[in-house]
Design goal:
five-stranded mixed β-sheet, disordered N terminus, Reverse transcriptase Ty1/copia-type domain-containing protein, 13 helices, coiled coil, RVT_2, single chain, alpha+beta
Amino acid sequence: MCSAKPADRQKYHPAVIVSVDHKPQVQHRYQVYFDSADSHSTQYADTDAVIISPDQKAMLLALRDADSDPADFPSDAFMDEPDPATYRQARLSPNWRQWHKAIQSEIDGILQPDRADPVTAFPPGSTVLPSKFVFKLKKLTDGSLDKFKARCTTRGDMDRTFYEEAETFAPTPQLTTFRLLLALCLTHRLMPYHYDVSRAFLQALIPEDERYYVRFPKGYVHPLGYVGAYMKKALYGHRTSGRLWSETAHRFMTDRYPTLSRSTYDECLYIGWIDGQLFIVLIYVDDFIVACADERSRARFHTDIMSTFQATYSGVLNQFLQLKVDVQTETLPTGESYPTKIELSHERSITNLCAKFSIDTDKQPPRSPMTEGLSLPIPPPDAIDRDYTLAMAIDPTTPQLTAFCDSDHAGDTATRNSVSGYCLYFHGMLIDWWSKKQKSCTALHSTEAEYVAMSEACTSAPAIYNTLTEFFPSAEPITINVDNSAVQTLVTQRALSTKLKHIAVRYHAVRNWCQGPLTKFTPVWIPTDDNQADIFTKALPTTKHGVPIIDKFTARLLDIKDRGVKLKEKLRAAEAQKLHAQQQQLPQQQRQHEIVLASLQRQNLIG
């Protein structure tokens, strides 16, 4: 970006464009400065740059020459633009009118009598924390506008108070737990519902000895002259706010629903029975995901949460974080609905991630897995069906928990480390997976790499197994599939092979999990073609053994089910053939027995 010298700066009210760079990305970069007419912008800051599109250039030039205020922007029309990083950038945004409404709504929410006391001056010697606005243009999963959100947060990094870890820790559930919740909804016919608590942290009470003063963000002027507030309830950004809100939500659950138990392995998950019906609640910061089969239980929860917090009810779950949730249902004769299939679309999260790292998916569509020998950049193919959806449908014929683990051998050409891959299914529904490098060891042979991969997989799967056994004691051991028969033998035999004694001790825990009284895993050998974790360890060809690998991975349930049916049919046919042969052999045996008896009788007569 061009930089103007201080002597060359021109002062306009409230802004002036002093330098322009033309970028090949069809965007122009403008450096914007404020003059002394802005009461909070007496100094020029070269770091406050605004990224705007060419359509905004004429508007800013007119604003510069017209000597007008940013609040007098001509239209409320929504213009898609990057989120402002500072209050200054929000004032110069073409969406300033909407941002201004969001800011005022946020400040009004903070200054409610039970949350904070506004102040016009801070007491001498008091601890005052600065704050800032965090602007976010909230969108729905389809990309349409949801709302303009301005969050006033404290600068927690400026607080010099020492806090213990227990005073700042706040649990947050993993996405694996969320997918497990959806899987339980399908297995127990529960409908998932979504509640969103508005300004959740501002509903958590701060102990009197921990309260603090907050100064309003730089640039913001309150109409009544308030410069800050004395906080009675938690504010976003403070290091203790997460813990205070977590304790508030936990008290709500224990006071209103004593029959629900908090999971030991994921403190945001509550499972229990209400009026004989299974009831599950998952808390993700300010989102409450409620799963139940009885409408009366949901109506009771609805009344309780609405009377306790300021919450929004979204109905049946259709969005969680950046995931689009599609719940397909069927209706019983009684009029109650239950889910039969749930689809999770990752399209928005993937496209946002590509945009963040400047990956043009239109010119270079991702092909995953990549074709062997394919050179980069990837040429645009004639047609690619991009499917970012994870479909979940119960398959009762499969084991309750089925894990797959795999590893390549020395796949990293720089360090010669191997890559482990793992995926976990719950009744045929994929709920957990990962792919990572074996950083702590360099495998000498493929069996060692597979052994380490199986050990790492066995450290991830027990979290789900323990959660299930905590509430459903009849949970079955995990069937872990591996395509290396030597590994299956090593983890089940009593003696440790001398060829594996150099492996770190931490990897031998898998032997205790696969044998003994505390068995959690049942190792099973499968062919490489059926190992679903193979896709997480290496770049596979588009087709493998004549079958599209993506179709093979996504249609794993159907494929394995067909294989299982064929195997069962073969076993039944073999048993029937064996029985038929035995029935045919029986008369012959009887005939031979009669012949022998007659022979013995003749011998006795002769004797």
